[in-house]
Structure formats: structure tokens, C-alpha cells
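Researcher: Here's the sequence for the chain we discussed earlier.
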Amino acid sequence: MKLKVLLVDDEPFILQGLTVLVDWEAEGFEIAKTASNGREALEYLKENKVDLVIADIRMPVMTGLELLQTIRENEISDAYFIILSGHNDFRYAQKAIHYSCMDYILKPVQREVLVELLQRVLKQKEIIVRNEEDNRKMKRAYLAQNLAPLLRGKYEQAHLDYLKEALTLSEGVRYVHISFDNISMLEEMSDDELRNMRNRLFGNCLHFLGADHDHCLKDLIGFEEDYEIGFVYCDYMAKARGMDTETFLEELHKNANMGGFNVPIVLLVGKRVDDISKISISYSSACVLRSFKSFRSSKSIYYYEKEVHVNQSKVLLCKQTLDRLIRAVEQNDRSEIGSSVDELFSEMESMGMTGEMVTMNTNYLLFQLIHLAVEQDETVNQQEVMRYISENVSETGIVRGSRMHLRKFACEYAEYLIQMRKNVSRGVLQEIEKEVREHYSENLTLRELSQKYYVNSSYLGQIFRKRYGQSFKDYLSSFRMDEAAMQLLKTDKKISQIAEDVGYHDTDYFINKFIELKGCTPSRYRKNSGNI
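Model: Thanks. This is the structure I predict for it:
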């Protein structure tokens, strides 16, 4: 983006000369406005933002010095300011410097002098922009670090105090997953494609939220998938726009999709809680929706209260048939699985197969399948099991009468339980440790490793978390950042090269991850070590 310049001089010949003295566009600038005196320039600056003002010191109506003094004292503009004068009077220069004038140059203006000044402006602007971006990244990182304990429901008062200071909050809070909704399509994309698409989605959300953009986070490590963004919604946001909650979230969804994506976008809206201190309840309910939505008709926005609530007095549970299906899954009896699924659909169809009926029966099936996994290993992560279920239930689900799909899923889940019974963790995890050590800079995924070592991917994820206390993705990120830290200490490589060396093609993404795990930027880490 070109920096905007305002040229101010009462002599038309001088103004014309300045416009053609240099190739402004080639130097990274564009002339936004020319004015014939300070008053005209002042009125323009009240309504428009520019990056640089070049003004004559002596003009009718309002001089260049008076213009500078006015915009600084009234905080109208923080643009760089250059004074032009035909007099080499140090008193003028002193006053100009007092009001943060960048330079004081004599007429006639020499091209080389002006070009040199423009380059100084560009360099200083780049430093400011870079520092502002670093500050934004640090702020987001600190927000994530303080929000994470609240999402877990185990936080200290300091975490809550920081969020209350950093965010605008109100009564009525919901945690919202903003997510791409076709996992099979996402798995076909490269890391760069997925990251770029997610960055676009994130940018769209920030643009819509405006002043509330800090409520939207994309790097809550351990709480989101690579294709998700987290959003802390408060009731005041809708009220401030004259909307109700549902209208606001519909507008957010529409704006998130600006520019169009090849993959549908979905909002998973957690349960409404009184305030931010109870957001773990809302977060957990949004996670439940990840799995439940696979058993629902396809929507753009899912609300926990609407999807989970069932009026049991109006529906019937096909418990005997469901229990038969669950036993067949537990015993890996594929013939029995097939006949049980057929019987379930026939029974529901004979009773009218209403939406509430399907909801209640599928909820029962879902929780019983989770219970089967817990019986195999009481330390199993239930959310991991729910994620497995969500990833393996197609969008059509049984809501639309897909008997074949439910049969296929039940057989795969039976195989998943078999994997859990096998003692496969020790040897496989040792091999995966070796894979990380030798190939950490490559695009390693748990799914590909599970295929390589013939282990169910969801179960592999669970035993990995059980062994290391973190997900494979976090383990890999931590290993990469440790390697990056070593390179920062022992080499003088550029940050971008180190990012490439440890597997990150996007330097900004690498810096953000480094801040998350190390608590400071790579540059600060290197500087603190004394290796500059």
C-alpha cells in the first residue's frame, strides 16, 4: 500500500514542481491532496488520514508552522511533517522540531534530498508497522494464554482479571467454533493451502467484528483444529448493532464467507453462560456440537440448546434395537451390525421417523459408543472419541436415511475398539518419536503415521496423549520450536530461514507459534541470549 502525501504551498508553480520532481509511485508514495495554505490543509486532515505532510513555512491564512502546531496540539494527525523554507533561520527549525517535525529543508528542493527524506519516512514507517504487528501478536498470544485456563475451567483470578482488562465483556457469553465443514476435503489440501484459507477466514471475521476483533482467536493451541477459529461472543455485540443474537451470528457467518470458499463454513455456538468466568461450560458444549452435528441435517449455524434439547415426552427410544446394535459393535459382529441397522431404520420409519425421534435415538447411540471406549480404557479422552465419531460420520448421516453409511461407520468403530484392546502403544510410539526427530521439518500428520504403522488414527492420538500429556500436533510444534530456539542461539540465520528449517513456510505463523510456546518473539529470544 502506498503512503499518502499532502503537499501544501501557496505558490502553484512550487506545488506543480513538487508533483513532478520525483516519481512518487516508484518511491512508494501517492499524492493524496495539494493545498494552497495551512487552513485548507487543516480542513482536509480533519477528515482524511495521510502519512506525510510537506508544507511551506510561510503562507497566507495559516503558515506551515501554525499548521504543524495545530495538528499536534489537537491530535489531529500524527503524519510525518517536513517544512519547506526559503530562509535558513535556526529559530524556525527549533520550533518545527519542538512539534515533531521530521526535517527542515531549503528551497529550491533538490531531488536527491527529497528522495533521501522519502526513504527515511518509509524506513521509519516500516519499523512502526512491524512493531505494531509484533505488539498485536503478543497481545493475541497473551489473550490465548489467559483464556486457555478459563476454557479448561481451572483458572486463577489473575487470568480472569487480565481478560476483563483486555476485552470488552458483558453478561451473556458464548464460545463459538468458526470452522470449515468438510474434513475429507480439508485433508486433501496442503498445509499452505489450509493455512491461507484459514487466514482469509480469520481476516473476514476480524473485519466484521471491528472494535471487537480481539474476541476472535485462531491459535488457541490444544483447543482448536487447524481449520477452526475461536470466538468469544457477548450479548452486547448484537445489541450494539440493533440485532438479536441469531441475526448477529448470521451476519458473522455471511461476512466470514466473503470472497467465497470451496469448503462450507459452519458456526458451532456453545451454550449461553452468565459471564466469562463460566466459559468452560460454553466451550465444552460447543465441542459436543462437533460430534452431534454429524447426526443432524446440514446447517450453517448450530446452537447447542437447539440441537441437544429433546422433548422426551413426544418421542420414542428404540432402546432394544439400539442395544442390539451396540452389542454387535462391541463384539465386531458385522452380520449382526447390518441387520441391527436395518431393524433400527425400519422401526423408526414405522413410527414416522420425526426429527426429534432421530435426535433422541442417535444421541443415545452416540453416548453408548463413547461409553464402550471408556470401558476399554478408563483414562481415554472422551473428546478424542467424540472427535473420531464426528470425523467418521458423513454430512448426510442417518438423519437423511443413510443406512449404508451407519452400517459402515458401525463396522469401523468396531475395528477402532479392537485397536484399543491391542497393546500397540510402546513400539509404535517409539517409531513415531524417531519420525519426529528425523523428519520434523516435513509435513508430518498423525493420520499418515497411523496408516504407515497400521493403527487407527484416533486411537493412536489417544495413546499418544496419554503417554506425553499433549496431542501429537502440540508435541511436534514443541519439538520444532526447541530446534528453532537452538538455531537462534547458535546461528545467525534469518528468522525466515529458521522458520523454513523447522517446517514453517509462513514466517508470521512461525513467529506466532514461537510466542505461544516461548513467551516472546524469536528476535527477542535471540537478543536476550546475547546472540544478535
